[in-house]
Amino acid sequence: MNTYVNNENNTVFNVGLEKNQANYAALSPITFLQRAASVYPNRTATVYGNIHRTWQETYDRCLKLANALRSRGINPGDTVSIIAPNLPEHFEAHFAIPMAGAVLNSINIRLDAQAIAFILEHGESKVLLVDKEFSSVVKAALELSQNKPLVVDIDDPTWEDGETIGSIDYESLVNEGNLDTPHFAVQDEWDAITLNYTSGTTGNPKGVVYHHRGAYLNAISNSISWSMSPHPVYLWTLPMFHCNGWCFPWTIAAMTGVNVCLRHVRADDIFNLIKSEKVGYFCGAPIVLNMLNAADDDLKAGINHTVDVMTAGAAPPASVIAGMEELGFNVTHVYGLTETYGPSVVCSWHDEWNTKPLEEKAKLKARQGVRAPMLDGLMVADPVTLKPVPKDGKTLGEIFMQGNLVMKGYLKNPETTDESFSGGWFHSGDLAVWHPDGYAEIKDRSKDIIISGGENISSIEIEDVLYRHPHIQEAAVVAKKDEKWGETPCAFVALTPGSEGISDKDIIQYCREHMAHFKAPKNIVFGTLPKTSTGKVQKFLLREKANHL
Amino acid sequence: MNTYVNNENNTVFNVGLEKNQANYAALSPITFLQRAASVYPNRTATVYGNIHRTWQETYDRCLKLANALRSRGINPGDTVSIIAPNLPEHFEAHFAIPMAGAVLNSINIRLDAQAIAFILEHGESKVLLVDKEFSSVVKAALELSQNKPLVVDIDDPTWEDGETIGSIDYESLVNEGNLDTPHFAVQDEWDAITLNYTSGTTGNPKGVVYHHRGAYLNAISNSISWSMSPHPVYLWTLPMFHCNGWCFPWTIAAMTGVNVCLRHVRADDIFNLIKSEKVGYFCGAPIVLNMLNAADDDLKAGINHTVDVMTAGAAPPASVIAGMEELGFNVTHVYGLTETYGPSVVCSWHDEWNTKPLEEKAKLKARQGVRAPMLDGLMVADPVTLKPVPKDGKTLGEIFMQGNLVMKGYLKNPETTDESFSGGWFHSGDLAVWHPDGYAEIKDRSKDIIISGGENISSIEIEDVLYRHPHIQEAAVVAKKDEKWGETPCAFVALTPGSEGISDKDIIQYCREHMAHFKAPKNIVFGTLPKTSTGKVQKFLLREKANHL
């Protein structure tokens, strides 16, 4: 950092000028809800089927729920968990639970009973809100768990499947509360607001703790990254359990927007809501964009306004960007981790790129980019020395982040917390190059890189080539131990139906034609790929397999 | 406040999760400049005549100036003053001076030598940057002042008048610095960033201290209030010495916009720049809008884009709003004080107001409004008990603010600081009513209210009526002591040329026809009104005069 420090505090500017109640307030996204309700009480806050609730109604419900939780013995610093789709209740939980002084723990709906049980125990949940769609897996989790939280059913009348398993339902709990009791006032903006478990591909998930300050700042950073219009209409395609929906519940409150809620991510629902609610913004993984691209033309027809889309998780291919642009959708590529409140890096667009050919635009947009407005530091550097790599677009380094959009740390895990912060930077574990214009582009996860004959080979680069093969449906590349080279790339490949004639030699040959020879995989293994509950390929299993070929 | 406090900090969420260099950074607007220069190095930052500088160039110049100031012995917490129009140098000072760890003191260019001398002494300035246009008054001030700062000339080649009076010029000072030395890194966001003297109508000005946190947050609050587009083109009609240009130097850096600089606020320059630079935003007092309205049609012609205008200081009359709308200018009314970083209250617009008749729209827009996005508390309350007044649009109370957009305090003035923060709220001194929709509307300064027979009479209300009289050019109303009523309103009036036939009786009669009889002034005094250097009427002089009639 191009800075120096001086701690002389004995100037006239530090005498008789202390913080007090008049001139200081803890940063907390709860204030966004308070302001929305006081300035625009009658504007719509949440839409779900026939339910339309205003900001005043939403604030009142949160106030009552916070009060009800307090009355049931929830104390500041207690954990309240939720397993639910993107319903209005899930949005409300992002405010009501901190308004009780408690910490929101939104659990991935795709986890199995064992993983849920682990989280309930590790996170010490006192209350669990659960939507009926997930009551059977939660029931099994509760049987496994030593911790037995108060279970509250979210009983969506438009969802018929699933039984209620709680001792009270959400609406009754809300109605236990009253409007007259003050809610919790955050005094220290460093206090925890949420707890998000990472979906690690190995071992137990880690509990990432967010604080009020970071939630407030990333909410605002989102709105600036996207230059959001006033009162944005936001469609909830991105799960709220992913980094608290990338902090967008708080962004939408700050902007007094509309939360268009959605149980399932389906092309018909999405297009119909975009048209009927005039949705202007949504977020989603490239797979969601793919699904929309592939939808029927009659679904796509009739959108006469601009839609801004934020995507992360993988670079959107050119064909996806082109398809989106044809629909009038403008795609912003962002990057982040659970540890950085979701997107903390953004591929900030330059106007002069608009006139470039599509392929080139897609290449520019495929880069992860630069620090988001409120991230304080971003660098690509040597993983050990933390010396920044040259901005040559070639030298591989690890991505490091610094500042207010970095988590408080991992819950009850000081060793891993310290490790991840060693040297004063957060270690992302993602390997990238730094382009001359300062934009970072990820090449691999650090543990997935293949070091062959002293050369770093990006598994992602090989996978990109494999995905372009017309008969390959899915591919994953890992390192295989090798006496001569140290490691060599080994590809696991699932073919499209009817491609049985393709041999491993064909594929290796194809790779050699499309990349440096030393990078081409030495082994090809056919078959389906093992995945986690969130759809991530379990490369550690493939590595074991590769080493036992 | 509808909140309660709990200081239990002994939860699992506060163990092993402390602040460190990786996960915490002090909020400071300097980071906006760093990001603008690193992400958009080649975008234009400042425009002034033939000068066009990019964000990289601007950052480099700031880095060098900061380094040069350090080399000349400026230490963290030292004061550096500037007296200059809205030039690129003035913009740079908003970053370079804090980057030296110093505190920027931007002095009102309309002050006389004595007032400037007072500020240089009270603020303990170590360096004074001065534009040639003001060198003669500054020279006189320096002769009066016991404090003799290093004087640096800003030698604008497009401005021929005035002599250079310093020991070095700005460009040479910049060139003394180097790019390789790190600049000051703010460790405590509560550290002072600027010092702004109020233009009190009585007594010596007070030094209002801003900190990095507040400057950062109000900069962002501005951009949200206005829903600014990316890379906004901002015209510098509002003086940078007014609350640091309402914090817009930092806003424009945060948005990587363009600062279109301007020496004098003239209709021809403004219209020409709006057209040639495609200006999208500017701020100004209603008098500036008036001037633009009154400009020649050929100046006004040819604007084909929307221009957003922020105004404060007085409510914009319906005719001004109508004129602006005809030009395609959209007016936002804001309110604040030097003590609240400029605008901290905004008349947030509601879409449903668009269809109302102009007069009604103007009435709605004339209200000061609600808290800006990042102001934490706003209320209209009893000045003594701090009990909020009913939201009935009638009951008079004082406006109080709370939170991060309230100053650090008054420099070397702990008594007045404590007084202004007593009860945990900042006392604005402005009297207002609170409308049922939560919007505040100012009726008077607390010291200007007239209490007659136990009734509060707003001097502003009487002045509004007087201003509608076709032969009155200027008017000011103050309290005159009265044995029977306690106080009665006394009006000081300047007539338009050729209105000599108008008598005091005519005016009193006019008032009685347009307001409750008890509110009509009992005395009318003709003549010009005494004003401060910033154009504020000196009501304390009029009060003395009224009591000696």
UniProtKB/TrEMBL annotation, chains A, B:
Q: Which UniProt keywords apply?
A: Fatty acid metabolism, Ligase, Lipid metabolism
Which InterPro entries does UniProt cross-reference here? AMP-bd_C (IPR025110), AMP-bd_C_sf (IPR045851), AMP-binding_CS (IPR020845), AMP-dep_synth/lig_dom (IPR000873), ANL_N_sf (IPR042099)
Cross-referenced Pfam families: AMP-binding (PF00501), AMP-binding_C (PF13193)
Ranges for the AMP-dependent synthetase/ligase domain? 33-411
Cited NCBIfam families: PRK08162.1
Q: What PROSITE patterns has UniProt attached to this entry?
A: AMP_BINDING
CDD domains from the xrefs? ttLC_FACS_AEE21_like (cd12118)
UniProt lists the family membership as follows: Belongs to the ATP-dependent AMP-binding enzyme family.
- AMP-binding enzyme C-terminal domain location is 461-536
- In terms of superkingdom, the source organism counts as Bacteria
Q: What is this protein identified as?
A: Acyl-CoA synthetase
Q: Which organism is it from?
A: Sessilibacter corallicola
